[in-house]
Every structure is written in C-alpha cells, then in structure tokens.
Design goal:
The chain is mostly beta strands. It has two domains: 11-137, Immunoglobulin-like; 144-226, no CATH class. Helices cover 2% and strands 41% of the residues. The protein is extended and about 75 Å long.
C-alpha cells in the first residue's frame, strides 16, 4: 500500500473472501500500546474500536469514517475500501513519521484469524506486534472541532384521576456537546444542558450486605478518556 501524501486521507483497500469481517488497525504514535481499529463486514456494517493497555479493545469508541463494499464477479469474494480521515485519529506533528499498522481477517467457518504481520500467542501484547507504515511525510493534524446539537421531547403519563389535574405532561429540551482538540495531547469536552435520557438505566440490585451498592457510570461524557487514569494494576 502506498503511503498517503500530505493532501490525501488514509485509504485502505482489502480483497477478502466471502462473508468474513476484515479490519485495518493503526498505531499513529508507534508507542506499541495504543491504536485504532476499523472493521467492515461484507454487508457494509462498520465497527470501530480503540486499543489501550487499560481497556484492551474498547468498542465504546466511535469515529466518523467511510467504507464501501463491492462483490467480485463469479462469487470470488468481495472488496472493501476504507477512508479514514485524519480528524478521526490522533498523530504527532513531525516532518517524517512511522506508524504501526496491521491487517487481519477472520474466517468464521474455520474459527481462524489471519494477520498481515505475524502475531505470536507466546509474545505478551497485541499492538506491539503490528507492522510498520513508513514514508509518511508532511502530515499535519487537522483542526479537531465538533459540535453535536440535540433536541429532545418527553411525554409523561400518570393517572392522577383528579378533577382539574392533567394525567399527561410534556417537556422539551435542547443543548449541545462540543469537542475541541487543542493539540495532540489535550482535548476539551464541554456540554450545554446535557440530556442523559437515553443512557441505560442502572440495574436493580437486592443488597443484603452491610456495604453500599456501587453503580457503574454509563454516561459517555463522563467516561470518555478515563482510561488515561487507569494505569495501576
């Protein structure tokens, strides 16, 4: 695969077999610890994740990227082209760079997985066994600024069954989330009038012990980036 020029977005092309998921993964800092994964099925379904020592493969990470799938004639398989914008990943601002890179595919019928660069089970770690993408020159990180507005409406029904009191009430909310990548090391996340109505509810727990119940934080605004603080064993 040719190295992308400064004016191009990274583009990955696969020629896989029928029906099996294929992926391209990148380690832009080449620190052998952190990386990004981009998976595509033959049906065009996408899945992305982030790799880190604290969380392993974190499927909660989401990026905006493009992919297109095409079936090869004669039932000989399918091809997929993936376009990963620079704004979806983080990388250093250096004149010449070397990224970690890996390709792998899964064959469900045989329960096998194939990788471009060998991954040995007896070697500890996964990202540190990726190959290298060299010849990257004059790559400049773009402005990472995103604004996500929202509008929500709620209808509540409670049977008061009292004279002069309505059994139904409505509520409208609006706000926005802002993400600004100040530089390659710092990112500012801000929210205006947050609405967590779509966050999964906490499970009901019957606690018969003398200790209080601790619930996991499910609001993405408060959990994104917390793996940076989970360095202890």
């Amino acid at each position: 695969m040719a190295a992308p020029r400064a004016t191009q977005e990274p583009t990955i092309i696969f020629l896989p077999d029928n029906g099996h998921p294929d992926a391209g993964v990148l380690d832009p800092y080449r620190d052998h610890l952190n990386g990004y994964g981009f998976f595509v099925m033959s049906t065009g379904v996408q899945f992305d994740c982030r790799y880190s020592p604290a969380n392993g493969e974190d499927g909660a990470w989401n990026a905006v990227w493009d992919s297109r799938v095409a079936l090869l004639p004669g039932g000989k398989g399918w091809s997929v082209e993936i376009r990963i914008p620079y704004s979806a990943i983080r990388f250093a601002q250096a004149p010449v760079q070397t990224w970690g890179m890996q390709f792998f595919r899964q064959r469900k019928a045989d329960n096998q997985q194939f990788t471009w660069n060998p991954v040995r089970p007896e070697v500890d770690g996964f990202v540190n066994q990726w190959g290298e993408l060299t010849g990257l020159e004059n790559l400049h990180p773009p402005l990472r600024l995103s604004l996500t507005p929202y509008v929500s409406a709620y209808v509540n029904h409670y049977p008061y069954n009292e004279q002069g009191k309505r059994n139904m009430s409505t509520n409208f909310n609006g706000g926005a989330d802002v993400k600004w990548g100040i530089n390659e090391s710092f990112t500012l996340d801000a929210t205006l009038i947050p609405d967590f109505g779509q966050v999964i509810s906490d499970n009901q727990v019957l606690n018969l012990s003398p200790f209080e119940v601790q619930y996991q934080e499910n609001r993405a605004f408060f959990t994104e980036g917390t793996e940076l603080f989970n360095k202890g064993g």
